[in-house]
Amino acid sequence: MIDRVILIVLDSVGVGELPDADTYGDSGSNTLGNIARKSKDFKLKNMEALGIGNISEALGLKKSMNPIGSYGRAEEISPGKDTTTGHWEIAGIVLEQPFPTFPNGFPNELVESIEKAIGKKTIGNEVASGTEIIARLGDKHVDTGYPIVYTSADSVFQIAAHEEVISIEKLYEICEKVRKLLKGEYAVGRVIARPFIGVSGNYKRTPNRKDYSLKPIKKTMLEVISENGLDVVAVGKIEDIFSGVGITESVHTKNNMEGIDETVKYIQTDRKGLIFTNLVDFDMLYGHRNDVRGYAQALMEFDSRLPEIISAMKDSDVLIITADHGCDPTTDSTDHSREYVPVIVYGKHIKMGADIGIRKGLSDIGATVLDLLNLPIEIAGTSFRKKIMVKEVHLK
Fold first, then answer.
1. Are residues 198 and 247 in the same domain?
2. How much is the average pLDDT of 127-152?
3. Same domain, yes or no, for 202 and 339?
4. CATH number of the domain that 198 lies in?
5. Considering the chain, what is the average pLDDT of its residues?
6. What does R_g of the chain's alpha carbons equal in angstroms?
């Protein structure tokens, strides 16, 4: 009997290019594999024990002869390679159309309507790196009080402001107004508040980022679980990604280690249902900044905490470790990459060494979560429960 699933998303830890990666400009991307090859003394002994090295030889990780978990990978079938698309697909929503992107900045008429709504002029309106644009436009922002607007290759509308010029509360209020305006052809996946601090020549972003996503367009596994009276606990930016829909309790975190701390605390409670965690540092701090060394270190830090996570688990728990897309720091691009994601499953009732192969759709993860909890699969996806569960014996 499975009472609870702990689902941890290692944000952007892809495991190799998808068949259509070239159409996204991502040929050769392999976030985990390329990091492993380019990092000296890189070891993931606990992940390797679970079977991550068995997923593909292209990862260059140690293959376990006797993995203690089940393993495989999943192919994203929705168009796109952004956070919202990946998480929504995990939860059972397969998109037919990608969220809109704005490679030349946002249309003037849209920006003008936003400026009217928030009562302020804006600066920027371009595709840019978040750290680069605040270094370049930070002084102008401080002088004028105008928020910095920018986007990326992803479907995002980002708003940066110095915390001493525009308070965090005011920045959040601005983002909420913008979110309401971005509809139809302008309905980006996320509006993101990007507060920063510091002085000229030394501006730096703070952990007070906040995402404002679209509400899910269909029912997700979160709603199925909560509607059946079970808990859906969101750790990290999960609540933001799903706009709170289907979530019964949440906690926001400032970094990976805090995210793991909070996850362990929840595992130690008697809540039943789902603990859904996103660990964002891999993507935000290292992938987008092409920081191979930092990314490698963050992966090893997560790996070092796996025994703590596992030791907190109850016999009726199942742990699933996956990702939402790639963000290969070894390539010239600083954007997300179109990649397979790992699927690692562990628990007392989970087979050791079962290979689930390549799942056609991240939604198979959500379908399996529901199946493990003996709930109806009212979402897209095909469960792989039978492949991973130890044979269940029912006494008469």
1. no
2. 96
3. no
4. 3.30.70.1250
5. 96
6. 21
Taking only the tens place, the pLDDT of each residue in 54-86 is 999 999 999 999 999 999 999 999 999 999 999
**Angle made by CA atoms 55, 60, 64, in degrees to the nearest 5:** 55
- The string of pLDDT tens digits covering residues 213-242 is 899 999 999 999 999 999 999 999 999 999
Please state the rounded mean pLDDT for residues 16-29: 97
Q: How far is CA 67 from CA 12, 45, 106, 177, in A?
A: 24, 11, 49, 50
pTM: 0.91
Q: Are residues 260 and 202 in the same domain?
A: no
By 3-state DSSP, what share of the chain in percent is helix, strand and coil, each rounded to 5?
Answer: 35, 20, 45
pLDDT at 120: 95
What are the residues whose beta carbons fall under 8 Å from the beta carbon of 244, sequence distance 6 or more? 250
Q: Are residues 113 and 22 in the same domain?
A: no
Calculate the alpha carbon distances from 189 to 83, 164, 172, 390 in Å. 8, 28, 17, 39
Closest C-alpha to 378, from 151, 222, 201, 172: 222
Name the phi and psi angles at 97, rounded to 5. -120, 140
Looking at the DSSP bridge assignments, the partners of residue 233 are: 249, 275
Distance, CA of 96 to CA of 58 (rounded, Å): 30
Alpha carbon separation from 17 to 51, 228, 283, 366 (Å, rounded): 20, 37, 17, 22
Helix axes 292-312, 256-267, angle to 10 degrees: 10
How many residues are there in the chain?
A: 396
Q: Is residue 394 assigned to a domain? A: no
